[in-house]
Task: structure prediction
Amino acid sequence: MHVSVVGSGYVGTTIAACFADLGHEVTSVDIDEDIVAAVNDGDAPIHEPGLDPLVSVYGGDRLRATTDYDTIRETDVTFLALPTPKNDDGSIDTSIMEAGAESVGEAIAEKDGYHLVVVKSTVVPGTTEDTLTPLVEAASGKTAGEDFGVAVNPEFLREGTAVDDFMEPDKIVVGTDGDGRALDLLAEVYEPLVLQWDVPVFETGPREAEMIKYANNGFLAAKVSLINDIGNICKEFGVDAYEVAEAIGLDDRIGEQFLRSGVGWGGSCFPKDTSAIIQHARDAGYDPRMLEAAVEVNERQPERLLSLLDEHVEAEGDRIAVLGLAFKPGTDDIRNSRAIPVIEGLRERGAEVVAYDPVAAGEMAERFPDIEYAESAAAALDGASGAVVVTDWDEFGTLDEEFDAMEEAVVVDGRRIVERREGITYEGLTW
Ligand SMILES: NC(=O)C1=CN([C@@H]2O[C@H](COP(=O)(O)OP(=O)(O)OC[C@H]3O[C@@H](n4cnc5c(N)ncnc54)[C@H](O)[C@@H]3O)[C@@H](O)[C@H]2O)C=CC1
Ligand SMILES: O=C(O)[C@H]1O[C@H](OP(=O)(O)OP(=O)(O)OC[C@H]2O[C@@H](n3ccc(=O)[nH]c3=O)[C@H](O)[C@@H]2O)[C@H](O)[C@@H](O)[C@@H]1O
Result:
């Protein structure tokens, strides 16, 4: 099957490379010429474990990238994996999706035969039916459900484990208005996965599919905020929130995942998706109190981390090490990383900030060009009067004598990764 993927970012590149690996011919369309050149040269444009090997095998071969939308006419199905950022008021900004839908419409205007357009991006309920489908219709002069089909197929992969998550998903959600051709084409696209892993395919309507994505992310974000809330209580009473989490996680109704309390959730999706669905609900007249509280708890965690540092260190004029800049390990993505409010808070206190991350320092240097970036955790800790741990990179778990080179070995751990030991003044955020 010939598949096209519009947008070659975290999701687009991952799914394009994986589709190629599943045996499909793939055309990837992006407006960024550097990204297109990288993919054709066999280089993944983003840092994602397992992606480089796939792009190096298929890039420029079974996976071809281009800036030319017209190429999608030659394909059977087009996945839209374009960004859906937020507006200043927190609501979803669908303008890039709208532009993409129009371009796809123009491209298939001349096509004979059926084409399937699949909304992979995260969009609030109603977006596909009310906005995107009419735009494809207007630009193509064709009728949805007759000349072309539209499906909503949200993506649940996580950064850092994107390839594995995509290749072995818990579920595949397909939202259509019952168009059999759309369902058949998507079944063919995903057949290798479904057969290999016996993946449940959840068929539903387009709005339901859109909402499932927000419910999934909202639930997970709220789960982390709830364990953070519980963790903050634990800290007040000298209780170890990780022991509490381990025990409650044994209850199948709770489950052991997403119970790691600490400095909170960041990334490109939980923050923008909770915000978008909250705003969408408010616009409809409903005040989503639980999700609002999840966001509020999350916003407070970085300041709680810094308050713990304040208890031990006068940050003003002191060298303070920030360990970890990516929003989670395994990625160079710093979007909404908790490191951002932490660095801001340290600078407000007049600290001399020295930061280290194995892969994300370059990204953070664009945001904070005037702080120091160390080549290693050891170099960041050397001479520092305090250290805060923001990302749970494995390598931080092996740090030991590096702390002895600190001016004062004060460590505030926001991710439960550093080993507590004698000689270190150690504060866990929720333990
Ligand atoms: N990042 C993630 O882990 C996940 C993201 N999602 C959703 O997937 C969507 C895409 O997210 P990301 O891949 O993170 O975005 P991204 O920002 O990493 O990548 C978007 C790509 O689209 C390209 N682009 C922008 N405008 C374009 C246009 N008009 N035509 C063609 N290409 C264009 C950009 O150059 C960029 O390469 C969002 O809706 C997001 O919420 C869903 C699941 C996971
Ligand atoms: O829509 C999306 O983009 C994606 O958002 C999340 O994936 P992602 O943001 O890549 O990463 P997660 O592993 O979910 O972590 C998100 C944040 O929560 C934090 N987190 C996670 C788990 C936990 O127990 N504690 C915790 O603080 C992480 O450190 C990170 O900052 C979802 O897990 C994916 O299913 C979804 O597809």
Q: What stands out?
A: Residues 122, 155-159, 217, 220, 224, 258-260, 262, 264-267, 269-270, 327-328 surround uridine-5'-diphosphate-glucuronic acid (ligand 2) (CB under 6 Å). The first strand starts at residue 2 and ends at 6. Residues 203 and 428 are 44 Å apart (CA to CA).
